[in-house]
Amino acid sequence: MNRLTKLLNVLILVLPMACTNPANTYSTIDSTAIPKDSTAENFKIEDKGVNIAYDDSKKGDTTLVFIHGWGINKTYWKNQDTAFSKHFRVVAIDLPGFGESGKNRKSWKVEDYANDVSAVLNGLDLKNVILIGHSMSGAIALEAALNNQPRVIGLVGIDNFNTYGAKETPQTQKEIEQFFKAARTDYKKTVSAYVTQALFAPSTPKSIRKRVTDDIANADSTIALDCMEQSFSYPTDAKLKTLKMPLYLINSSANPTDTLAFRRNGIAYRFFNVGKTGHYPMLEKPEKFNALLEQVIEDIKTTKKQILKI
Q1: What are the backbone dihedrals phi and psi of residue 2, each rounded to the nearest 5 degrees, phi first?
Q2: CB-based contact 234:110 (threshold 8 Å)
Q3: Burial of 92 from C-beta contacts in 10 A (0-12 / 13-18 / 19+)
Q4: Do the Cβ atoms of 66 and 77 come closer than 8 Å?
Q5: Which of 36, 121, 132, 167 lies 20 to 30 Å from 236 when distance is taken between CA atoms?
C-alpha cells in the first residue's frame, strides 16, 4: 500500500472530525420571511455574516439535506436532487469556503460547519430532516444532528465512518505531517497526486476523475488545508456514543468498513454496501446509490413511526 493510500485511510478516519464548542451559536432567521412559492429565489441565509449558498426544491414533508465532502460543492448531488425531489424536499448546501458560499471567516472547525448547517435548518424551518454527509461532512452532519433534536430524524454517512476507536501510529502521524508540509508548499501538485492515487477506483470514469481533481486542486488552498487539519481534534467516537439514533452508512467496499468495531463498542449502525467504487459513489454508481438511499430513507421513516407509537 503506497503512502498516499495509507494517508487516505487515516484521513477517512479523522476527516469526519474539530474542536468542541458547546455553544450552538448559529444565526437564526425569521422563517415567516422565507418565500413559499417554489419558483421564488432562495432566501438569503448567513451564519455570523458568512453567506451560505444552497439549492432547495422547497416542497415535501421530509427533507433530505445533502452536505458535500472536502474540496467539492453542492453540484455533486445533482443526480440525487433529480431522483428524490419528486417525493421529498431536497436541500443541498455549499459549505462556506467552497462552491458559491462565503469565505469571510478564519475558523473552519467541524463545529463551525455544523452551525452553518443549523442556520439552514432553522432559517428554512425544515421538518423531518435527514442529514446526508459525504466524506469529511460525516462529522459535520453528526454534530448538526446532535444540535438539532428533534428536527433531525436521520443521519447518513457517505463513504466515511469506516471504523470506530482507531488510533494513530507514529508512522501515520509522520505521514500526515509530511502531507501538510508538502501541501502548504505546493498545494496543487500535492493534492492532485493525493486525489489521483487515493480517491478513485480502477472503474472510476475519466470524466469524474478530472472533475474531482480540478475542483479540489482549484479550491482555496488555505481554507481546504485548514478545515482538514482542524478536523483532527474532533472527538468522533465520543460524539457517536451520544447519538440517540442509528448511524446509516452507504460506503464503498474499496475501503472496507469495520462493522465489528461498531458492534464491539455498542454503536447502533446500519451498513449499506454500494460496491467497489471510488470515494464518490453518488457520481460513480448513481442508480445503485439512489436505490440504497431510498432504502435508508424508508427505514428511517419506519423507525420514526415505531417510536411515535411507543
Answers
A1: -75, 170
A2: yes
A3: buried
A4: yes
A5: 121
